[in-house]
Design brief:
about 120 residues; alpha/beta; 4-stranded parallel β-sheet; 4 strands; globular
Length: about 120
């Protein structure tokens, strides 16, 4: 599995959404199938969910098969996962475990969050 960590696409002070979308699509074209996201990847409270919306825009205009892409978003409680699902749409894998959970716990929680639906 090849992945892309998308945090800096939304947290850089000089961020550029169009450039970020190009980065995401280029990674997907090069074989990435896993995108790391979070509603917290943003500039401030008024921008929550920016990274997930950015990924949704990138996937919407991508020529490849988005059904092959996994978007992992970290959120707790489950309402955060539902919000992420509505921002990103399908496909989505997400963790509904507390942010302090270790990576193995988070990965095992993916199916639980994706089963929540929008």
């Amino acid at each position: 599995m090849i992945g892309l960590g998308c945090m800096r696409l939304s947290t850089a002070a000089d961020r550029d959404d169009e450039r970020a979308i190009t980065v995401i699509r280029t990674a997907l074209d090069a074989g990435a199938t896993f995108l790391d996201s979070s509603d917290a990847y943003c500039l401030d409270e008024s921008d929550v969910g920016h990274n997930e919306r950015l990924i949704a825009r990138a996937l919407a205009g991508w020529k490849g098969d988005s059904a092959l892409i996994t978007v992992a978003t970290i959120g707790y409680p489950p309402v955060v996962c539902r919000s992420a699902i509505s921002r990103i749409g399908s496909p989505l894998a997400g963790t509904c475990s507390p942010p302090t959970a270790v990576a193995s716990d988070s990965i095992s929680a993916f199916p639980a969050c994706s089963s929540l639906g929008p």
